[in-house]
């Protein structure tokens, strides 16, 4: 009886192709396509039947995992060939995990639809929410009774809230984000090309790289990860300082043409006046002070005109 149990426990699981598809989550057609590409070993032939084993099931799960990580089938073929010839995948998968890890210390948050509407003035805007989800600023959370969203970047949402509170329409905010994202992705692509050429090329000469090369490359990713954001932050601060000053000077110059024909031409403020305002409120607050003073004068003259019209009206006794 003991010998029978031992023999029974030693029997390896065997699958027909339909059973293998059921256990792996792949379709029968996909399994056959993987066989044709050399990604999956051929089954054993038993009479008229093809028989698959646990090694086939493990390989299918391996392929699914690599596809989820963003690999193409051609890249997976190279990795699996390396695995079959005795070279490990540990270093490569470690490198993939490092690259796909978070590139910021910011933590995601959650927000309900009611809280979201309240932060944007209290008026629901379905189109704005749809665009935010499309852009990834919000992510829907399935299986929730109440409408709740994941916010991958609370800082990005906070910027949108402040811009909207300052009077920027939501459509303009999402349009600006689309344009900004395209430009930032270009910068990120250039940074990756630069570091690949000068840093990572030596680790990627072999395809796939050896475990040791992949592990060293993962270490370099950890070291260089903050540099992209630090460089962009520094250059953005420099550009904003230069361009904001130039922008203000243009708008205070009488020589500057109006943006449209129906817009008033900017008025130059005398240098002595600017210096006096700087001494009073500081260099950073000059533009705000001039704007507030102008608005105050306009409001005063408007009230005076309304009062005068009322006094001259024949209905006033």
Task: Tell me about this structure.
- The protein is mainly alpha-helical.
- Among the domains are: 2-86, Orthogonal Bundle (Multidrug-efflux Transporter Regulator, Chain: A, Domain 2); 271-312.
- It is 64% helix and 5% strand.
- The protein is built from 13 helices and five strands.
- The protein has helices at 2-9, 17-24, 28-37, 54-68, 73-84, 90-100, 113-119, 126-135, 154-165, 170-200, 211-252, 271-281, 286-312, and strands at residues 44-46, 49-51, 109-112, 139-140, 148-151.
- The strands form two sheets. Strands 3-5-4 form a three-stranded antiparallel β-sheet.
- Helix 6 runs parallel beside helix 11 (211-252) and helix 8 (126-135) runs parallel beside helix 10 (170-200).
- Residues 1-10 have low confidence and may be disordered.
User: How far is the N terminus from the C terminus?
Assistant: 120 Å
- Strand order, biggest sheet? 3-5-4
CATH topology of one domain: Multidrug-efflux Transporter Regulator, Chain: A, Domain 2
The overall strand count is 5
Rg, rounded, reads 33 Å
Instruction: Determine the number of helices (DSSP H or I, runs of at least 4 residues).
Output: 13
- Overall mean pLDDT: 80
> What is the level-2 CATH architecture name of one domain?
Orthogonal Bundle
Structural class: mainly alpha
> How would the global form be characterised?
elongated
Helix content range of the residues, please? 55-70%
pLDDT < 50 stretches: 1-10
Residues in β-strands, percent: 5-15%
The ordered string of helix (H) and strand (E) elements is HHHEEHHHEHHEEHHHHH
CATH class of one domain: Mainly Alpha
**Major β-sheet profile:** 3 strands, antiparallel
């Amino acid at each position: 009886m003991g010998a029978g149990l031992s023999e029974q426990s030693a029997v390896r699981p065997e699958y027909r192709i339909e059973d293998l598809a059921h256990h792996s989550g792949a379709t029968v057609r996909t399994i056959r396509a993987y066989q044709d590409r050399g990604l999956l070993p051929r089954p054993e032939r038993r009479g008229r039947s093809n028989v698959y084993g646990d090694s086939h099931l493990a390989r299918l799960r391996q392929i699914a995992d690599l596809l989820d990580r963003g690999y193409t089938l051609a890249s997976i073929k190279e990795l699996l060939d390396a695995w079959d010839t005795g070279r490990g995948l540990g270093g490569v998968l470690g490198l993939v995990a490092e690259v796909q890890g978070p590139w910021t210390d910011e933590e995601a948050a959650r927000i309900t639809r009611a809280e979201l509407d309240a932060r944007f003035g209290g008026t629901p805007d379905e189109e704005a929410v749809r665009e935010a989800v499309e852009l990834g600023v919000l992510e829907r959370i399935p299986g929730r009774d109440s409408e709740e969203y994941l916010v991958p970047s609370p800082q990005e949402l906070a910027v949108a809230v402040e811009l909207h509170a300052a009077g920027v329409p939501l459509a303009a905010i999402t349009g600006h984000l689309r344009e900004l994202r395209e430009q930032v992705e270009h910068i990120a692509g250039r940074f990756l090309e630069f570091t690949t050429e000068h840093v990572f090329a030596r680790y990627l000469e072999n395809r796939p790289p050896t475990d040791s090369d992949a592990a060293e490359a993962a270490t370099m990713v950890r070291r260089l990860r903050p540099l992209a954001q630090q460089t962009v932050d520094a250059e953005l601060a420099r550009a904003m300082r230069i361009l904001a000053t130039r922008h203000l000077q243009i708008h205070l110059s009488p020589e500057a043409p109006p943006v449209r024909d129906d817009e008033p031409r900017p008025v130059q403020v005398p240098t002595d006046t600017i210096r006096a305002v700087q001494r009073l409120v500081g260099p950073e607050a000059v533009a705000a002070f001039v704007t507030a003073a102008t608005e105050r004068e306009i409001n005063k003259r408007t009230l005076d005109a309304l009062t005068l019209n009322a006094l001259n009206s024949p209905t006033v006794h």
